[in-house]
């Protein structure tokens, strides 16, 4: 699709990040008009999960389901009907750290539940079971380019099926020795409900592949510069800031290794 633009509408947005527990509280900071609500991110409590399930679920699942719920509610879409794409650079890092430590210390004591929650598509599985969704579900990982790769996957699915699609992008905080090799110092999650058709009040985006473009970030308020550097999922901040400002913007984001796949986004309203 080089040179050919795909147009889509963002109907719903979800966000869960330090100082921005939802889209309503995030709009002012994203516009540079207010301070973050606080540095600490409270553990999300998605209503789709029963209290016992919420207590047992890992942070990656809670983050992903919380923003997915927000986006579907804003879009007024039934979660059961939406194909979905769950994208994460590293999955649940706390569980990865636990598995490595336990395998080195006492392999026979490994928790089956922890192992079950370690798979990359665990949040997608929790989502489909909690909502009863029988539509297609994908799990994407592309390192620093995960946000762009997940966005491209969701847009292509929405256009293929001519139906709204849910995108969820999330990463958790690094634990233990993994801190030396994995760059993810804060939990961050966002979600979009994407429609290939125009929607009243929606955010219109034109996307095209541009391998020769240099990924560049739209201006961000200074208060968000540190946050942007803390998580691969925070690569979505320039897009979110443009949506919060409701001003036309042009953004290029990486969707693959350098020089191979970049997405050029033109945003209008």
Structure, described:
- The protein has helices at residues 23-31, 51-56, 59-75, 93-105, 112-118, 122-131, 146-161, 225-228, 237-245; strands at residues 6-16, 84-87, 137-140, 165-171, 188-195, 203-209, 249-254, 262-268.
- With 269 residues, it is of the alpha+beta class.
- It has one domain (6-268): 3-Layer(aba) Sandwich (Peroxisomal Thiolase, Chain A, domain 1).
- The mean pLDDT is 88.
Notable traits:
single chain; 269 residues; alpha+beta; Peroxisomal Thiolase, Chain A, domain 1; 8-stranded mixed sheet; 9 helices; 8 strands; globular
Which secondary structure elements does this structure contain, and how are they paired or packed?
Blueprint: E1 6-16, H1 23-31, H2 51-56, H3 59-75, E2 84-87, H4 93-105, H5 112-118, H6 122-131, E3 137-140, H7 146-161, E4 165-171, E5 188-195, E6 203-209, H8 225-228, H9 237-245, E7 249-254, E8 262-268
Parallel strand pairs: 2-3, 2-4
Antiparallel strand pairs: 1-5, 1-6, 4-5, 6-8, 7-8
Low-confidence stretches at least 5 residues in length (pLDDT < 50)? none
Q: What is the molecular shape?
A: globular
- The overall pLDDT, averaged over residues, is 88
Please write the string of helix (H) and strand (E) elements.
EHHHEHHHEHEEEHHEE
Specify the CATH architecture.
Answer: 3-Layer(aba) Sandwich
Strand content: 15-25%
Q: Superfamily at the CATH H level?
A: Thiolase/Chalcone synthase
Task: Tell me the helix content.
Answer: 25-40%
For the CA atoms, what is the radius of gyration?
A: 18 Å
Distance from first to last alpha carbon:
24 Å
Question: What would you call the structural class?
Answer: alpha+beta
Task: Report the CATH topology name.
Answer: Peroxisomal Thiolase, Chain A, domain 1
Work out the count of structural domains.
1
Order of strands side by side in the largest beta sheet?
3-2-4-5-1-6-8-7
Largest sheet: 8 strands, mixed
Given the structure, what is the number of helices? 9
Total beta-strand segments = 8
In the CATH scheme, the class would be Alpha Beta
